Amino acid sequence: MAAISTPAAPGTFRYQLASFWKDFSASRGALVGMIFIACVMIVALLAPWMAPHDPAMQDRSALLVPPVWHAEGSWRYILGTDAVGRDILSRLIFGARYSLSISAMVVLISMAGGIFLGLLAGYFRGWVETVITRVMDVVLAFPSLLLALGLVAILSPGLTSAMIAIAVVQLPYFVRLTRASVIGEKNREYVIASRLAGAGHLRLMFNTLLPNCMAPLIVQATLSFSTAILDIAALGFLGMGVQPPTPEWGAMLANAREFMGSAYWAVTFPGLIILLTVLMINLMGDGLRDALDPKMKRS
Amino acid sequence: MSRDALLSATHLARHYQVKGGPFSKPATVKALVDASFELYPGQTLAVVGESGCGKSTLARVLTMIEPPTSGELVISGHHVSLKEGQRPPAELRREVQIIFQNPYGSLNPRKTVATMLEEPLKLNRRDMSAGERREAARAMIEKVGLRPEHIDRYPHMFSGGQRQRIAIARALMLNPKILVLDEPVSALDLSIQAQVLNLLGDLQDEFGLAYVFISHDLSVVRRIADDVIVMYFGQPVETGPAETVFTTPRHPYTQALFSATPVADPNRRRERMKLKGEPPSPLAPPPGCPFAPRCRLATSECTEGDPPLNEVADGVRVACIHVDQAMAAHEASA
């Protein structure tokens, strides 16, 4: 009771948020990651106002102009231009929109599907579980990029099919994680109490069990987010993802690779931004995992 | 027995299949072998016995969490016929509810008290509006001794005793007639135990509840039970009015069990009957009386057949063929 009467009323949403923030911000890497991702998101949102040029505009008089710190560079194209005279900085800024939103969609699709299948498998067990887990094992057995490539080839190359393909590749991780947590929670007494109160299968799965299984899923979502960016970039690089002239980071890399020796900037900057984003998201995911895991909690 | 029983169990049994390894046959564990009893409104029936004797299995069968393997269960005139994994039918959910032993596992950590208390109403009382449900939850939380403002808090903010009160409130939301209490106080501090037991007593008087009180704490049982069932190895070995059973235990197992209860009387000299050995493995039940291997009165006859549960005194039934000797031995030691 003493704890309840103190000003920081435990249990309120604000208190939970505050304690979460305390744990999360304790890890400097997580904090840096979050700030970086926030910046990328703001840039992506404000792309039309921030980009100095139209990302698809080709300046035939300025092909492969180097970045501004080179003697031949100009302030007009700060990070230089690519082989058809498009401004690399503008393309990176607009590319953030595509990379982030595509990855968000991928994570959303695979998380929704994974949670649903995982709940079914963990809740009903028996043959439902066997079928679902075996299919997921098959998906896991393929190298992820190969499977994604195959799926895109079947679905015809394009943005939508790339998203679906990568979502399918990510699915097993969510299914396994959900299933494991559901099995752990399913025989707890509060679930039995709900059942005795008359809760049906759907209510038990989505209302009673799911909220208690979310913490590891949120962490997995951030980790998948970075994998999705990489996979989308890889598909783009192989020409199976986003089609030109869409300024997607992976596709930019792919288009510029023949000039790697003569114009390093056309390859370096998209590569660098992919690397940084993925790294930062992973850092953030680690921090999130530590903050949400009660076993890591310092009292 | 002229009164109408709220709940009557006849030869209830619950067996579990244990999957064998690749080289062994699947085995059957008889967690509950043969339990028959009746429960009347306003009465407390205590079920006692050591760990693994089938008390909790009995609780799960009575609350329709699991169907009995055989035997008949009649609750308020309804014959219970339940399939494996099925939730109890709507008309019976209102009759029987359960309180679990561990108040830390029985409350959903992600729901507020209000949500938990309102859930049974939401699912079973379509006629109630959201406002009425909230009002009912508020009234119930006060009835179990918590404050109305507690209703919007989460379980982790409460102590064990308070949590158990919340669990009791949730069980009572549908106005059940029977409450199965599966070791409701054994996870609590002694001082809190008394409070919760008093609360249960008050609620019983107010609502005319019938309790099935499952416990291994004999001093608690003695205080609150009207009738008692002593179980050993999945079957009742002695049943009867609590006072009679406690003052004159007749079955050798009951005698040994009761002699293990500490008595707060330094002058009393008493002999403790130590039980030898372990309860038999449920995978390899001994022939005849399951208590025979540990019983000090066992003879070769004991292993020949299951001893019937015979009425030996007013309302007291004992499953032992050597009741008279056991009684004589008890009187000699008392």
What integer value in Å does the Rg of chain A equal?
23 Å
Which chains make the largest contact?
Answer: A-B, 20 and 31 residues
As laid out across the biggest beta sheet of chain B, the strand order is: 6-7-8-3-9-10-12-11
Quick one: biggest sheet of chain A? none
Elements of chain A, N to C (H/E): HHHHHHHHHHHHH
The SS-based structural class of chain A is mainly alpha
Low-confidence stretches of chain B: none
In CATH, what is the class of chain A? Mainly Alpha
Q: Write down the oligomeric state.
A: heterodimer
Report helical residue fraction of chain B: 25-40%
Task: Please outline the helices and strands.
The complex is a heterodimer of chains A (299) and B (334).
Chain A: H1 2-5, H2 13-25, H3 28-45, H4 47-50, H5 88-124, H6 126-141, H7 144-155, H8 159-186, H9 189-196, H10 201-209, H11 214-237, H12 249-256, H13 265-292
Helix pairs in contact in A: 2-13, 3-5, 3-13, 5-6, 5-8, 5-11, 6-8, 7-8, 8-11, 11-12, 11-13, 12-13
Chain B: E1 7-18, E2 27-39, E3 44-48, H1 55-62, E4 70-75, E5 78-79, H2 90-93, E6 96-99, H3 113-124, H4 130-143, H5 160-172, E7 178-182, H6 190-207, E8 210-215, H7 218-224, E9 227-232, E10 235-241, H8 242-247, H9 252-259, E11 310-313, E12 316-318, H10 323-333
Parallel strand pairs in B: 3-8, 3-9, 6-7, 7-8
Antiparallel strand pairs in B: 1-2, 1-4, 4-5, 9-10, 10-12, 11-12
Helix pairs in contact in B: 3-4, 3-5, 4-5, 5-6
